[in-house]
Structure formats: structure tokens, C-alpha cells
Amino acid sequence: MWALLVLIGAASVSAHLQDLSFDGQKVFRVLPQNDEQVEILNFLASIMEVDFWQPDSVTLVRPKMQVDFRVEAEKSFEVEDLLKESGMEYQVLIDNLQAAMDAQFDSKARTASHSYEKYNNWDTIAAWTADIAAQNPDLVSRSVIGETYEGRPMYLLKMGKSGPNKKAIFMDCGFHAREWISPAFCQWFVKEAVETYGKDTVMTTLLDKLDFYVLPVVNIDGYVYTWTNDRMWRKTRSKNAGSICIGTDPNRNFDAGWCTLGASKSPCASTYCGSAPESEKETKALADFIRGHLSTIKAYLTIHSYSQLLLFPYSYTYDLPPNYEELNSIARTASKELASLHNTKYTYGPGAKTIYPAAGGSDDWAYDQGIKYAFTFELRDTGRHGFLLPESQIKPTCEETLLAVKYIANYVLEHLY
Amino acid sequence: ELPPSHFPAARAAAVAVGYLRYLRGGPGRGLQLREVRRARRQDIEDVGHKYYLELELEDVLDKDRTVNCTAEVLYPLGSKTSAPDVQVTVQGELRDTEEADKEFYNRIRSLEKELVAENIPDSHGNVPPELEPIHLLAGVASGYVIWQNSTENTKLHLAQVKHVKQVKRSDEDLQFDYVLLLHEMVSQ
């Protein structure tokens, strides 16, 4: 008799768990400034189910306290409207709770599990972005800045301790599909940020005082293609009208001397500049985001491979930028920092003269938008492996590059404008 | 005088190293450029542009040793079809590879079926150790192709061995047919 009751009890509990779904539920983080805004949270809690993650209950909420709470999917739009209207500072910490939870389970169960010392395919990276944000809500939040040609969401990670009026540094990886070490670095950077926050003074200061926007893969379609079809693919995967050839070179597709030199007007060329500046959904999404955050973004870093170079504007002309001396000096020291770890030699200088002139690059475009500190990294190596850098070199490459990036970030922090 | 680490010098260096790999490379020797120490360019009227280079190289199988060499690379004026004229002088002796070459030769000869392989290195940058000599041999072949097809505005590198097939022969020579992927840096 007892056994039967226990069995039924167990069955009903497990059924209940299966019905529970967090799909579409959002977790908000707000910063009520005054009693009035605290009252708004009280009001919210009175008209709907609000699950407070911190503090434990609405009664503990005080002005200037960081408050995290979960709401049902159907209510999340109402909540967001209310928060917007109230002028209260808020952010969406978790966009879809179910997805974040799934990602956590998935990343342990999947056969292709994420590793910072291996090349990860796109699905693994996508899941990782959800994972890392869910595990570090204090430091990381994920958003989508657009869609690729083939409809994939472009995930952006915002890193940094929450705070008012923070300036930011934007860094992207994976412009060119075959440059696998590049997305590997963006992932490494994020890992280092969350793991050393509170332990490394430089990183802690950087994340406290600045935000980092990290776009782990810009050209996702291309990246997927290098995993499934052609390891040497470079461009996007968009169709070109009137041609059988596919793809545009995203780093010739920006509105910076667009298609004047070092780029091709032929869709079949690997440096095809596209039908127009920002013709690609990916470059448009990136440019839109930067334009939309221009007042806060103070530096732009874009990671490529290979050749071991640290370049700055201009590439679309041999003319030198107004703060050439400063950029050159930063590049010189950053290269030195990088070399200090494994003696890896980098060459630095303005793009056109140092390697070759090439118009339509994102670094030149960002610079001309007013972002004074714009750098292009070309990571390891110098041709022995080229694009096929062995996985054993991921760690040393990322470690040394991180030194240079931290140096540049620190410099920017000390020279905010 | 040219900045040695910038691309104009590096382009000429790539040609010189390609040529040197063609001359002196083998299944037991892979010469790589470590650094351009010095570079000068001379514009010779009605002839072309001549680069004078001081290069520091290394053998990938003997990385601790430094191989110094000087090179002259002349890109003939106007000609897009003529290969650059290259002279290279290696300082000192290169490591002897007779043992390694013999071992490679015997190993291939003893194979039951003709060797076939593809994607060296693979997508993740790996080269199985037994295929390393085949990879280095590809460096010899690509060295020739790079030398023959370079201009002042190109920088060619061997990106990957797409396919290699041993060709059956009636004599005692070894023959391999390669399909190589070359990466041209400047036009990317």
C-alpha cells in the first residue's frame, strides 16, 4: 500500500517537472535609482508573478540596489515597456531561460564539446555564447545584432561589470571564414575575462571601467562552409546577381574608399567588394551596431590571420591618419608586449604601406566614424601553416595576443575621449 | 633601403625562399623564412627592379640552427610571363639529409600499394608524422611553382596539399603527382 502511494507520488512529481518549461522567459536586471522606481517594482510584483533572483523578495529592494528577476514569457513585453517608460536602467540578462538551460546541459552532453584549445564548429560556439552568458550574468550578456545571409543569428557578447556611463571597446573575430584562429581568440578573450575578473588587477579594472563588445564570428555562414565544404573559403556566402560565383569579401565591403583599390569588382574574386558598401547583411549589422553606439565605442579591434601583423589606418590610402604617431606608438608597445611571452615577432604599421593598399576595410571605416583607436590584428603564423594553424598553437597564440589587447585596452582607458 | 619586415621586402623574400626550397629542399629538409634582416631595392632602367636581401632561415626539422643566406631577386620590367631571376647563397653547410632521404625512399619502395593521401595538413593543422616527408616534398614542388609564378605584387605560400598520388614506375625512381593549394596573399 505504502509502496503504491510512493510510486504514484514519484510519478506525479516527475510529470510535473516535465511540464515545467522556461521557454521564452526572460530575466531582467534593473537598477532602481530612487523610491519611485522601487515602487514600480512593487507594482509589477503585485500585478503578475515575478520571481526575484536577487534580492530574494521584492520587500528587500532598495534604491541603488541591483535587482534581478524572472518573468513569464507572455509578460516580458509588458515588463519591458513598463521599464522603458519608467526610465529605469535595465538590461535583459537572460533572453530565453530555456535556451540558456538547454545550452548548459547540451554543452556537457554533446559529442563536439566546447574547448578553448580546439577549433569549435559554429553550433558549439553558438551554444557556448548562451552558456557563458548564463554562467556569468554579472559580467556577460548576449544579444543578437542581426542575421546572416543564410539566416543565422549574429551573437554579440557584452562584457563588463554593470555601471553607468561606461565607454566601450568593440572587438570582432571571424571576418574571413578560413581564419580559424581568429574566432578561437575571441572565445579565449571571453574566457580570460570571466576567469580572471577579481583575480587579475588589470582585467578587473578593465571590466569595471569599460565594456567590451565581443563578436565571436562575423561571417558565420562562411565559417560553417569551411567546416562542411571548403576549408579555404574566405568570403560570405551570399549569391551574386548575374554570376555563378558566391560571396563578397566582408573586409572590402565597408564604406571606406569603397572598391577604389586592393579590391575587385568581380564576384568571382576573393576580394570582391560587393554590389555596394554594406551590401552584406553581416557587415550592415556590424556597421549599424557601431553607428548606434558611436558615443560609447572608443576603440575598434578586428582579428584576422595570418602574417603576425598589427595594423592601423589607413589601408584605402597611403595617407597617414591625424594621430599616426600615437597609433604607431601604441602598436609598437603592443607588439613588444605580445613578443614578451613566446618571442613571436609582429610587424606593425599603417595598412597600405606595411602590407598593401586595400579599400573597404572595417578598421578604416570605424576610424573615419570617429573611433580614434582602430587596429587590425593578423595572428600566427607567417606562412608555414598559414590558415591551417595546428590546435597546439591556439593557447600560445591566444595568450600572447591577449597581452597586446589588454595593453591597448588599458591605453584607451587612460586616454578616453 | 626597405623596411625588412614590411611586405614589399617580404614578397621578394618569399620568391627567394621558394627558389631555395626547389634547389635544396627534400623529404628530409624544409627551409622556412624566419626573418628578413635587410632589404634593398634597386630600380635598373630598362631592366627591372632588383631586390637585395639578407635572410635568416631555419630547417623545420632542425629549428635550433640558424641558416643565413643572401639573395638577389630581379623582377624583369613589364614582363608578366617571365619568372623572376633569383640568386641565392647559403652561408655555411646545410644539415645532411642522406640518412633521412634513404629512409624515406626505402619506406615508400616497401609500400604494398602506391601512396595516396589528401588534405595535408588537415583542417585542424595536423600532419601525421609519416606524411611529414611528403609534406616537405610538396614544399619543394611549391617552391618551384612559387618562384616561376611570382611578380613584384604577389606573395605566394603553400596553403595545403589537396591531394598526392604516387605514380607507378617501371624504374627505381619515385614519382608523386601533387595537387597543391597556393595562397596568394596580396589578392588574398
TrEMBL record, chain A:
<keyword id="KW-0732">Signal</keyword>
<keyword id="KW-0479">Metal-binding</keyword>
<protein>
    <recommendedName>
        <fullName>Carboxypeptidase B</fullName>
        <ecNumber>3.4.17.2</ecNumber>
    </recommendedName>
</protein>
<feature type="active site" description="Proton donor/acceptor">
    <location>
        <position position="378"/>
    </location>
</feature>
<keyword id="KW-0121">Carboxypeptidase</keyword>
<keyword id="KW-0378">Hydrolase</keyword>
<dbReference type="Pfam" id="PF00246">
    <property type="entry name" value="Peptidase_M14"/>
</dbReference>
<dbReference type="GO" id="GO:0005615">
    <property type="term" value="C:extracellular space"/>
</dbReference>
<dbReference type="InterPro" id="IPR036990">
    <property type="entry name" value="M14A-like_propep"/>
</dbReference>
<keyword id="KW-0645">Protease</keyword>
<keyword id="KW-0862">Zinc</keyword>
<dbReference type="Pfam" id="PF02244">
    <property type="entry name" value="Propep_M14"/>
</dbReference>
<keyword id="KW-0865">Zymogen</keyword>
<comment type="similarity">
    <text>Belongs to the peptidase M14 family.</text>
</comment>
<keyword id="KW-0964">Secreted</keyword>
<dbReference type="InterPro" id="IPR057246">
    <property type="entry name" value="CARBOXYPEPT_ZN_1"/>
</dbReference>
<dbReference type="InterPro" id="IPR000834">
    <property type="entry name" value="Peptidase_M14"/>
</dbReference>
<dbReference type="GO" id="GO:0008270">
    <property type="term" value="F:zinc ion binding"/>
</dbReference>
<feature type="domain" description="Peptidase M14">
    <location>
        <begin position="118"/>
        <end position="412"/>
    </location>
</feature>
<dbReference type="GO" id="GO:0004181">
    <property type="term" value="F:metallocarboxypeptidase activity"/>
</dbReference>
<dbReference type="GO" id="GO:0006508">
    <property type="term" value="P:proteolysis"/>
</dbReference>
<keyword id="KW-1015">Disulfide bond</keyword>
From TrEMBL, chain B:
<feature type="domain" description="Cystatin LXN-type">
    <location>
        <begin position="1"/>
        <end position="99"/>
    </location>
</feature>
<dbReference type="InterPro" id="IPR046350">
    <property type="entry name" value="Cystatin_sf"/>
</dbReference>
<feature type="domain" description="Cystatin LXN-type">
    <location>
        <begin position="116"/>
        <end position="188"/>
    </location>
</feature>
<dbReference type="GO" id="GO:0005615">
    <property type="term" value="C:extracellular space"/>
</dbReference>
<protein>
    <submittedName>
        <fullName>LXN protein</fullName>
    </submittedName>
</protein>
<dbReference type="InterPro" id="IPR049897">
    <property type="entry name" value="CYSTATIN_LXN"/>
</dbReference>
<keyword id="KW-0646">Protease inhibitor</keyword>
<dbReference type="InterPro" id="IPR009684">
    <property type="entry name" value="Latexin"/>
</dbReference>
<comment type="similarity">
    <text>Belongs to the protease inhibitor I47 (latexin) family.</text>
</comment>
<dbReference type="GO" id="GO:0008191">
    <property type="term" value="F:metalloendopeptidase inhibitor activity"/>
</dbReference>
<dbReference type="Pfam" id="PF06907">
    <property type="entry name" value="LXN"/>
</dbReference>
<keyword id="KW-0677">Repeat</keyword>
